[in-house]
Amino acid sequence: MDERRGPSSSEPLAIAAFIDLDQSYLVIFLYNLTPINPGIVHPEGTHRLSEVLVVKPATSLYTAALICLLAVPALPAAADTQQQTAAQYKHIVDTEFVSQYATVPKKDDVLIIDSRPARKYDKGHIVPAINISNSQFDKLTHLLPEDKSTLLIFYCGGLKCKLSHKSAAKAEALGYTNIKVYAAGYPEWKKSGRVTGVSAAYVKKLVDKPSGAVIVDARPARKFKKGHVPGAINVSNREFDAKLNMLPADKATELIYYCGGYKCPLSPKSAAKAVAQGYTNVKLFQAGYPNWKAEYGAAGGLAKAAASPSDAAKIETGEEAGIITIASFNNLIKNHSDQFHWYDVRDPEEVEADGTYAKAVVMAVDDLQDKVGELPADKPIIFFCSTGARGGEAYDIVKLERDALEVYFLDANVQFHKDGSIPTASPPD
């Protein structure tokens, strides 16, 4: 008979055997030769112990050799169909891996996907990623490539954010076969010093309400004259040095470069030159003028009226309706907690591991879609999570189905406490 422990695997194995003839035992150690996570260092080493078999009796070396030969094919071929946990997708990559594909011109055989809500993507993302938020995944599958072997790289708001893992699993269920998750996500990408991107919606806000940012068209003058983003200046990449004096003296000024879209390298080249000149707040609107024209027309669209937050509750919101400020959140949860419904929309395993606010209702954002009709209307609802991404998703879901309901969300990093005390909120990454 044999006794087994540890997961089964059909991946490449190495065998080590120990024979104790005095005790008539044979112990076989099977090591999985596939690295635990290529490119990521583990304290346990690069390979994992896959199986231990204790076989008795072990009467001879010939018997031992025969058992060793038969042990590997006898193991269940389960690795290829092994299900990943809900917390983390099985194929994780790092910043160096992603940087090979985050290029302009955009590569045709890879698609980088930001799984965060649009409001997060709008103000900062990896170029040239597209936005398919996890909550809207099923409605936006037409944005995925037809070729199911295309490399898909999902990311979201960092190691505590589960949106990219969930979206990756959904893509796999659709038949895509080459999927990776950049678990460190946007915070790590930004921390690495790479120039990040903004969307047309972000640029539109700057056009409608100037804030001191400078929008720079890196295309040749002839292109600029035919049409450009309102308020933009023209410093073509070729004339960068000659027109350097057109850039602001303050090196901390927000500079947003654009050109002719994802196939146009002029804006990233100019952005890199600006960084080399010491500018510290440089961004790319890489979708560029073609996207602007499609969204707002050649002359730009009229500014949309900003939605005014309800003044029935003493809630302070930021520039976007629905986002409660950190200061307001801290004040209300500390001094007026009974006047609101508090909803923690993280996954249950996160709540179990990190704790939650004692007065909060725990309802994972994935479960919210089916429970929108059950949400109370007697007091305002405030959604929160660990990074703000899923709180924003919850807000979007509710507004789509019950627009009259008074809901808000906290766009912040939140640290929870096991004792159920008030969580600690800090500015988002």
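the 2nd protein, sequnce then structure:
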Amino acid sequence: MRIKKLFSVIIALCLIAVTFVMNVSAEDEGIRLIYEIETHNYAFSESCSAQETQYLSYLSIGSQELRECIFEGLYNCQAQIDISKFGFLPTQENCDMLGDFIWKEMPEAFHVGNKMSFNGCTDLLVYINLEYNCTAEEYQTMYADFEKSANDMVKDLKGGNLTDVQKALLLHDRLAIKCEYDYENLKNGTLSYKVYTAYGALVEGLAVCQGYAEAYDYLLEKVGIDSILCSSDALNHAWNIVYIDGKPYHVDVTWDDPVYENPTQKPAGYVSHKNFLLSSDALKGTDHVAKNDDDSEIVDYNTSPTDTTYDSYFWQNSFSEFHLMGNNIYYFNNNGAFCGYDEKMPLVDAGLGDINGDKKIDAMDVSRCRQFLVETETPEDTSVKACDINKDGKINILDLVHFKRVLIYIG
């Protein structure tokens, strides 16, 4: 069950307390324009305070049904979507909430324009009126590409024994590798609307911070991890708050993906982890603080993340991508040593892979492993441990395959 916290309390408070469903048609008298809103990048409406911290189930208050209803209209680029069956009162707060729900909590709504209006009658919101940046046919093609890209990025993370921390880490790195900050168009004032969306990040590989954040939110949702967008007007910036075991942490993929004026100069596989799963105090230490004229600090964003468990975690000592091979995660530390996630030390120091004891993993080790498999050589106890690189307690063809994957990654 997907759990979200940003809008649930608001929805629960704003629904009409009735036990019947009201059906309203376009011909009903008294339907009129209730409210118009316009989105602003990075900003949430006042009614959807980023400081809200309680959890409630979306499904328990019908929000999954709301999302499905809205998406059916979005998928066909309907100019008007009927929401009368949900019984929302015609208030400004409800209109703001629904706008934020679509713009900030539905990354798949990347084609929706920046203006929205609502029609209703005396005691009921009836229609959401929308504008789109493309036709229905264009969107459906884009959406197929969007879903394929997202599913390709998460398909090997479902099932298995990976923890939520490991999944969040791998997706953080995959997104940073796949996407580049659109520095060139930002510099020239020619940014497309797509760079503010998850589509820009996941399909076209170009985004600004909002696009990174919405893409990360969508990827996390696909592997069952809850997150919300966090934004600062003072910093003109957006990132994510991710929930691990019910505790919130800041994650800023954008600032962990260094910007190069010439993207070809960026080292392959280069990813920082300085802004991954941080407390609010630690986040301030990575320059997430604006200044007033008197040099006093401006912190105008959600500071609910207080747990410091990961503030100085071992991934801080790596500027390379964490990579999943089989059921194991590997990475290079800042000393250039190839490490296993579980050992948090160089793989050879953990006694894995270095069969011939020369303090490196290379083709000679693969050859020794092959000799063990065809029984032309009997391994010693230390060689058995080193050869069992996938750590299943056996030496077999899977270890040989794993060796080759490691060598490809190192190379």
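Residues 230 and 335 are 33 Å apart (CA to CA). The first helix runs from residue 8 to 14.
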